[in-house]
C-alpha cells in the first residue's frame, strides 16, 4: 500500500445518514515545512484515484514536491477511501450512504488539521469532480484556503450534466448482472456500455474529427481500438457500486446547499480566495459558459479557458500542451501574494 | 392503414445482401399536377415515421399540399417500410440485411418514377437522417433533383456522431433481454436506457440550462417527467431490432461510397442542385462545423444556421420559432428559378 489512511470514526453526513468508521485514503508528496505554510490539497475526480492525479506533480512544475507539501485525498466511493466495495456489511454495496462534496471536503479538512496541524493551504486545485471539491473547499474553509484553481468542473452540477450522467447510469444499470447492486461479479456488459456512452462526452467533436486518438501521445490504431483500450479500460477495472456512488455525488453537487447558504449565487459570492477558473474549450459537460456565469458571481476570480480540441480531457493530463497550460496558470497563481 | 406500399420485388443492396420482396411504405399529400412538375420528396429520420414529418406540411407553408405533391417515403427499418419487425423469416429480426442511405434512395427513386412517372423533383428536404437521404438524392439523381434543403444532418456521418451512436447502441444492447436480437418481448430496460443516453444529445446544454422542457410547448413538470414522458416515450414504442437496423444505416452513411465516386469530397463537389444546408446552433451530433466544411466543397450551396437553444431538435418540429425559420428558407428556395 503506497498511501495512508485517515480514520476519523463515524461521520454524520449532510443527507442524514452516517458513514461509519470512515476511512479517507490519501497520499502526500514532498515535505511539510516547519511553519506548515507550504501545503496544497488536490482532490481526485470521477473514478480516479491518487495515482491518476500524479501527472500534475513534479520537479520544476507548479506542484513541485521539493517546494510544496501536496496532499491528494481520495474521494469517497473511489475504491480507496470508504466505498461500497470496501465497507463491511450492512453498509456495503448498494447500501453505502449518499456522500456529498460537502461531506468529502469536511473530512479532508479534518485530515489536514487533525493529522497535520495545517491551518492554511497555499492552494486547492482539481480536475472535474476535483474542481467541484475545490469550490467547496474555498466556501467551507475561507480562512484556510488562500487560492483555488478548479479546472473543467463546476460549483453546481448543471442540468445538462445531470442528464449526461443519467445516460451513463442507465447504460450501466441496464445490465441485468448489476442486479440492483447485489452482483457477485462485476456487471461487465454494463461497465463497457457505460464506457461507450462516456466516449462521446469525454472528448469533443473536434477531437474525433481530427482523429487525435490515432496520434501520439494516444496512438490507438483505430476508433474501435480507442473505445476498447481507452474507454472500456477506464471503467472495467472499477466497481459498479463505487461508480454509482460517485455518480450520485456528482449529480447532487451544489455548493449552494452548504449549511448557511441560500443557493449557488450566494455561495459563489462568498468565495473570496483569488481564483483562476479554468474550463476547457468544447468541454461537453462542463462547458465554459457555465464557468463564465460562475466567475461573474465570484469576487476575485478570473476565467481562463484551455484552448484546443481535447474537450473535457484537456484536464486529464494526457496532452502535454494542455498540461503545460494548466501548470503555467498554477505557477502564476501560486506566485501571487495574497 | 393511412399509407401506401410500393413493392419493387427483390433489391440488391449496396453491401451485397438482398432485400427480398421489399416494401416501401409512403404517404402522399396534395395532388400531382398534369405535367408532373410539382413533386417534393421528404424522407424520414431515425425512428420517425411519415406521421412524424407532417408538422412541416400545411396550408400556407412552403410544403403546401394545395400546391405541391409531397411524398414521404418511410426509411427502411422504421417499422412501416421493410424492417426487422415486419420481414418474414429467415430475414427477420437480427437477420435483416444492412441497408444504406444509397439503397433507401434508390428504391425511393423507383417509387417516384415507376409508380408516379415523375422525372423532376422541385425539392428534396429532410431532417437528420432525412437530411442524409437528401444529399444522397442530389448526388444519385442530379437530373431529377432541382433543389435540396437538408437540415440538421450530414452527407457523411462524422466519427464523433458514430461514437455517440455507439453509446446509444451499447445502452440498448446491455439489456440481456435483447438476447442478440432474438427477444420475444421488447428489451424495455435497454430501450429506456437508450432513451436516457439520447436525452443529453438531442437537446443541447443551453436547452437544459433554460429548462425549456418545462415551458410551452413542451410543458413537462420536471426533468424526470421530461426524461420519461418525452425520451422514454419516443423509444419504448419502437422495436429494438428496427432501431439497430436504422442505427447501422446512420453510422455507415457516406455519400462518398456511392458507386462511381471516390469519397465524400468528390461526391459533394458533384452536387449541383441549389442547396440551403441548415444546421442547428448547438446541435451536438450534427454540429454546424461539419456542414460548413460540406458547403465549402459544394458548388451551389449556402450555409444557414437555425439560431437558438434547441440543438438537434430545432429540426424536430416542436418549436414554432424554429419551424418558421425552416419554413421560410424552404419558401425562399422553392421560389428560386433553377
Automatic annotation (TrEMBL), chains A, B:
<protein>
    <submittedName>
        <fullName>Homoserine O-acetyltransferase</fullName>
        <ecNumber>2.3.1.31</ecNumber>
    </submittedName>
</protein>
<dbReference type="InterPro" id="IPR008220">
    <property type="entry name" value="HAT_MetX-like"/>
</dbReference>
<feature type="active site">
    <location>
        <position position="312"/>
    </location>
</feature>
<dbReference type="InterPro" id="IPR000073">
    <property type="entry name" value="AB_hydrolase_1"/>
</dbReference>
<feature type="active site" description="Nucleophile">
    <location>
        <position position="128"/>
    </location>
</feature>
<dbReference type="Pfam" id="PF00561">
    <property type="entry name" value="Abhydrolase_1"/>
</dbReference>
<dbReference type="InterPro" id="IPR029058">
    <property type="entry name" value="AB_hydrolase_fold"/>
</dbReference>
<dbReference type="GO" id="GO:0004414">
    <property type="term" value="F:homoserine O-acetyltransferase activity"/>
</dbReference>
<keyword id="KW-0808">Transferase</keyword>
<feature type="domain" description="AB hydrolase-1">
    <location>
        <begin position="61"/>
        <end position="314"/>
    </location>
</feature>
<feature type="active site">
    <location>
        <position position="283"/>
    </location>
</feature>
<keyword id="KW-0012">Acyltransferase</keyword>
Amino acid at each position: 500500500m503506497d498511501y495512508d489512511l485517515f480514520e476519523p470514526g463515524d461521520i454524520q453526513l449532510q443527507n442524514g445518514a452516517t458513514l461509519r468508521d470512515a476511512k479517507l485514503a490519501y497520499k502526500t508528496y514532498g515535505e511539510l515545512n516547519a511553519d506548515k505554510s507550504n501545503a496544497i490539497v488536490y482532490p481526485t475526480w470521477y473514478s480516479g484515484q491518487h495515482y491518476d492525479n500524479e501527472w500534475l506533480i513534479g520537479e520544476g512544475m507548479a506542484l513541485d514536491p521539493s517546494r510544496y507539501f501536496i496532499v491528494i485525498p481520495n474521494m469517497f466511493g473511489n475504491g480507496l477511501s470508504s466505498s461500497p466495495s470496501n465497507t463491511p456489511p450492512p453498509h456495503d454495496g448498494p447500501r453505502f450512504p449518499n456522500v456529498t462534496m460537502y461531506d468529502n471536503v469536511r473530512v479532508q479538512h479534518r485530515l489536514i488539521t487533525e493529522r497535520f496541524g495545517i491551518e492554511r493551504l497555499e492552494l486547492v486545485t482539481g480536475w472535474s469532480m476535483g474542481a467541484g471539491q475545490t469550490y467547496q473547499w474555498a466556501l467551507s474553509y475561507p480562512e484556510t484556503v488562500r487560492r483555488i484553481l478548479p479546472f473543467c468542473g463546476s460549483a453546481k452540477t448543471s442540468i445538462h450534466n445531470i442528464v449526461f450522467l443519467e445516460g451513463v447510469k442507465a447504460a450501466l444499470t441496464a445490465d441485468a448482472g448489476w442486479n440492483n447492486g447485489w452482483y457477485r461479479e462485476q456487471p461487465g456488459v454494463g461497465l463497457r456500455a457505460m464506457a461507450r456512452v462516456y466516449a462521446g462526452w469525454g472528448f469533443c467533436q473536434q477531437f474525433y474529427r481530427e482523429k487525435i486518438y490515432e496520434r501520439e501521445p494516444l496512438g490507438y490504431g483505430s476508433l474501435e481500438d480507442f473505445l476498447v483500450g481507452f474507454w472500456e479500460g477506464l471503467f472495467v477495472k472499477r466497481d459498479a457500486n463505487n461508480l454509482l456512488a460517485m455518480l450520485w455525488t456528482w449529480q447532487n453537487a451544489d455548493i449552494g446547499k452548504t449549511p448557511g447558504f441560500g443557493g449557488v449565487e450566494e455561495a459563489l459570492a462568498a468565495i473570496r480566495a483569488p481564483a483562476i477558473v479554468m474550463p476547457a474549450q468544447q468541454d461537453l459537460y462542463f462547458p465554459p459558459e457555465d464557468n463564465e456565469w460562475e466567475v461573474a458571481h465570484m469576487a476575485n476570480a478570473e476565467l481562463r479557458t484551455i484552448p484546443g480540441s481535447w474537450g473535457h480531457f484537456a484536464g486529464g493530463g494526457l496532452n502535454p500542451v494542455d498540461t503545460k497550460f494548466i501548470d503555467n496558470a498554477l505557477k502564476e497563481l501560486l506566485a501571487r501574494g495574497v
